[in-house]
Amino acid sequence: MSYPELCFKTLALASMVLCSLAAGGGCSDGSDGTPLSQLPTADLAEEITGASAPFIGAATAADLRPSGYVEREYVAAGTADSYRPAAPLTADGRWTFEVEDSAPYRTRVLVRRPEHPEDFSGTVFVEWHNVSGGVDANPEYVAVAEELLRRGHAWVGVSTQIIGVEGGPVVVSVPSAQAADVLGKGLKKIDAERYGTLQHPGDGYAFDIFTQVARALRQGGPAMGHMKPQRLIAIGESQSAMALVTYYNGVQPLAAVFDGFFLHSRASFSLPLAAPGDYSDISRGFGTIATILRTDLDVPVLNQQAENDVIGVLNSVVVRQPDSGTFRLWEVAGTAHADARQLGATADSLDCGAAINSGPQHIVAKAALRAIDAWVRSGEPPDAAPRLELASAEPPVFLRDADGIVRGGIRTPQVDVPVDVLSGVPGPRPSIICILLGSTTPLTDERLAERYASRSDYLQRYTAATGAAIAAGFILEEERDAVLADAQPARIAE
User: Most buried in the list 152, 251, 318, 391, measured by CB within 10 Å?
Assistant: First the structure.
């Protein structure tokens, strides 16, 4: 263990001890030591009910009852601040924000938690809902649901941005007859009976709304089934990960409310601050300053990136930063920003000129979720992961093998013992959505015969690669059977 990592672990353990000795939630939740009870906090007392189910943009419905979980929905109400930079933003992420003004809000939170307190792990993962598709969506929950449920974690999704509530532009559209009725409309128009009283003042206030909801969760109360969390970890994917970069660099130093962050598929830029009543237009982020995550906080961050997040439209290669006692970067070979599992049946309506990526990014995301939870609990960071390899740094070009499979990075058996070329490179008809979806290209029968002497040879190598990824901590033991079931020995000629 390095000296910085040892220091971080000591501080984290000391903090946990002090908090355990404090009476009645007396641990401070502000950078100035103000007690949690005296800080602006969302009111989560009003439960949202109705004949219809809660709306969330997801390809598959959440199946909670077999795991002993309940789903509840609440209004989050209060008065939130907006922020402005006190000085020009810098590439090192060491930003200073100051309050600009304030406005009332009424948004919603979606809570999925164990029904019984004895089943609760003490960790709440708080997801910043993604609105790039023009609706409130929970892509990170979709990726990691199995891990959340089997470990007894709670998940809370926050309708943080104005588009999810009031409606607005659709940045990334997936062709679907079902989706056409809801895209860009916002919760209030999608289900006026259920959500008609909500009011969002604009994305400039989103960061403080997220903070105030987290403070309310920290206190327990009805939304948490009167269970007091011990750990709050912020999570977000794509545009939401960009928002969490802004939050970590500018708001976390002020609020000090989250114990850890899991960022999935960030861009080189962060989500811009917005004017009152406006939305944070991610298109305005392109060409703005590329920023790393600041290195002077003691709050751990695990950042997972797909192959085409690194070199592609999001260009995160330019914000690669060294692993440290508070930062880990996981770049996953053969994966795409979004993929077939995340899109579900809607993937069939896409014509990208090639099959979209079917790489098992979600398998690694579940390992990442466990890693950040363990890191927050113990102060001990996970092992560092290899980075994807570059053949050229300027311009950045990946190093690939003879079949076009990228070298380096976190490897899964589907990538190391392939029957398909899993890639972040899109098909030949690259619409905006297709650019993000990568591709799956079957290896020819001749090439498979060159790679594998027999089906048993293929299976032996695939099984060994699975074991190696589990031993490295990038696939969980609980996922072994699912990964092995993904093998395709019938593709190999006898």
Answer: 251
Do residues 473 and 382 touch, judged by C-beta distance below 8 A? yes
Please check the confidence at residue 9 and state whether its pLDDT lies above 70: no
DSSP 149-216: HHHT-EEEEE--SHHHHH----SS----TTGGGTTTT-HHHH-HHHHTT-B---GGGHHHHHHHHHHH
pTM greater than 0.90: yes
**Residue 295 DSSP one-character state:** S
Domain count, the chain: 1
Q: What is d(CA 43, CA 41) in angstroms, rounded to the nearest whole number? A: 6
- 337 assigned to some structural domain: no
Tell me which residue of 276, 234, 242, 213 sits closest to 40, measured CA to CA: 213
Please tell me the distance from the alpha carbon of residue 182 to that of residue 195, in angstroms, as a whole number: 14
Distance of alpha carbon 89 from alpha carbon 95, whole angstroms: 6
Answer whether residue 71 is part of any domain: yes
In angstroms, the first-to-last Cα distance of the chain is 49
Distance CA 210, CA 234 (A): 9
Range(s) of the domain holding residue 195:
42-299
Whether the CB-CB separation of 171 and 282 falls below 8 Å is answered with yes
C-beta of residue 77 within 8 angstroms of C-beta of residue 42: yes
Percentage of the chain lying above the pLDDT 90 cut? 81
Q: What is the pLDDT of residues 10-49, one digit of tens each?
A: 333 333 333 333 323 334 456 666 776 689 999 999 999 9
Is the bond preceding residue 201 a cis peptide, omega within 30 degrees?
no
Structure token digits, residue 389: 């390899």
- For the four alpha carbons of 311, 313, 317 and 318, in that order, the dihedral sign comes to positive
Query: What is the spatial distance between Cα 67 and Cα 155, in angstroms, rounded to a whole number?
Result: 13
Among residues 156, 121, 120, the alpha carbon closest in space to that of 138 is found at 156
> For residue 257, what are the contacts with CB-CB under 8 A and spacing of at least 6?
29, 211, 214, 215, 218, 232
Q: Which runs of E-coded beta strand occur in 265-326?
A: 301-306
Q: Judge contact between 412 and 469, C-beta under 8 A.
A: yes
**How many other β-carbons are positioned within 10 Å of the β-carbon of residue 284?**
12
The reply to whether 454 falls in a domain is: no
* H or E stretch covering 369: helix 361-378
> In the numeric block, which tokens belong to residue 317?
């290669």
In this structure, the number of other CB atoms found within 10 A of the CB of residue 32 comes to 8
Kindly report, residue by residue over 194-230, the tens digit of the pLDDT.
999 999 999 999 999 999 999 999 999 999 999 999 9
Q: In what order do the strands lie in the sheet with 327-332?
A: 69-85, 97-114, 154-158, 123-128, 231-237, 260-264, 301-306, 327-332
**Residue 284 in contact with residue 272, Cβ under 8 Å?**
yes
